Amino acid sequence: MESWLFLLLVLAVAVFGKNTSLIIASLVVMTFKALPMTEKWLPVIQNKGIDWGVTIISVAILIPIATGQISFKDLVSVFRSPAGWIAIACGVAVALLSRYGVAQLAASPQVTIALVLGTICGVVFLHGVAAGPVIASGLTYCIVTLLGLSFK
């Protein structure tokens, strides 16, 4: 019963904050929880969900290559600008931090509640987005803006 109340609270905060992603996520988890075989599928989703999410984000990131919006010429130009190198460094940094973060979650699952609360607050009240590549892009934006650089 406590888990249902917690999920309803998350849903209420998401609705209050008008965050569609969190609303959908809450409803999906509540639906899974209501279905038979919950004890079998929820741990699988918990263990593999981050990998699945990263895969979906990676697909979305690769679409501009498939549509021709990004070409080899664009790739070469990245290596010719300081902003491009900053973007590469931020991508590497976020990937490394994510690796340690996943290990931290496995070693200290109680940290999850604080992370969930912080993520919910950041997404709902500050209109943030919970996504690794977006974090790398945000870091790149901050550094490039501070240094007055551009990608051209």
TrEMBL record:
Tree of life domain: Bacteria
User: Which locations, inside or outside the cell, does it occupy?
Assistant: Cell membrane
List the InterPro entries. Answer: UPF0756_TM (IPR007382)
Q: How does it sit in the membrane?
A: Multi-pass membrane protein
Where's it mainly located?
membrane
> What keywords were assigned to this record?
Cell membrane, Membrane, Transmembrane, Transmembrane helix
GO CC terms: plasma membrane
The residues that cross the membrane are 49-72, 84-102, 114-147
Q: Does the keyword GTP-binding apply?
A: no
Name the family: Belongs to the UPF0756 family.
Under the heading HAMAP family, the entry gives: UPF0756 (MF_01874)
Supply the name of the protein.
UPF0756 membrane protein LFYK43_13070
**Organism in which the protein naturally occurs:** Ligilactobacillus salitolerans
